[in-house]
Give the backbone structure.
Amino acid sequence: MIKVGDTLPATTLYEYSDVEGEGCSIGPNAVDVAKASAGKTIALFALPGAFTPTCSAKHVPGYVEQYDALRAAGVDEIWCLSVNDAFVMGAWARAQKSVGKVRLLADGSADFAKAAGLTLDLTAKGMGVRSNRYSMLVKDGKVATLNVEGPGKFEVSDAATLLAQAKG
């Protein structure tokens, strides 16, 4: 499993945007993790799936609500990763009203989750291999803090915990 001090996995995530900008097409657009995290402080959190109960009711809304506080604490970007495709993540971003605050990034084949050693096998529930629920503060591509949830829990990967770590 990835740990504090490690570099983020050199993988590609995908993002769907409803609005063209900064020379990007609407999508899906490739996001090279190494390039996108270089020189930035990122509040990164991951969850098992878009449109799922805890993820939609608590996890993403908490980061949307804490956007200004996280920015004030030195966070440049907030990333949400899930093992879904970019089109689903784009639709979820609209539903969560997270556009412009939280980047919902697709790890469609679980490449990032596998490389980080943070997978969750939900095959028995018909969901296949997903990402575990966790959060991390990333500085210049390296893990500064890591908060991994226990099975079925939502106690340490929330926005308030990561905000306290960003301030600390």
